[in-house]
Specification:
The protein is α+β, with helices and mostly antiparallel strands. 48% of the residues lie in helices and 12% in strands. The protein is built from five helices and five strands. A three-stranded antiparallel sheet has the order 1-5-2. A hairpin with a 2-residue loop joins strand 3 and strand 4. The longest helix has 15 residues. It is globular, with a radius of gyration of 20 Å.
């Protein structure tokens, strides 16, 4: 489930529009387009992503914000696009949580375990 995109202080029409774009699937589709673009072309600005995807700058920026809030992408170094500085976007590097299980029978882990048991 996606979080709301209208602020509590926004007009009712903003909430109606936000619900419509989410319920229709347009929001998720645009997020998928932006995510694919970032995967294939890291370090583009929102304006460039909007051009590549055909979404346009502002709709792309909105969906990039959604993806950032979900922890899927992160802002990179800013650069100029049409005379204005914008952050670039890249895929968030996955970090293992200390609560996340690790595959102990993975060949890499077995090799490390075997290396440690051979010497003294």
């Amino acid at each position: 489930m996606l979080p709301p995109i209208a602020r509590t202080s926004d007009y009712a029409t903003s909430h109606e529009g936000a619900a419509a774009v989410t319920v229709s699937g347009r929001r998720q589709t645009a997020m998928g387009m932006c995510l694919a673009c970032v995967e294939q072309n890291p370090d583009l600005t929102a304006g460039e992503i909007g051009e590549v995807t055909g979404l346009g700058h502002v709709p792309a920026q909105r969906r990039l914000s959604d993806l950032k809030n979900q922890g899927k992408i992160d802002a990179g170094p800013p650069r100029f696009w049409h005379g204005h500085r914008q952050v670039t976007w890249r895929i968030m590097q996955r970090q293992l949580s200390f609560l996340e299980p690790v595959e102990l029978d993975h060949p890499e882990h077995l090799a490390r375990r075997d290396e440690g048991s051979h010497g003294g």
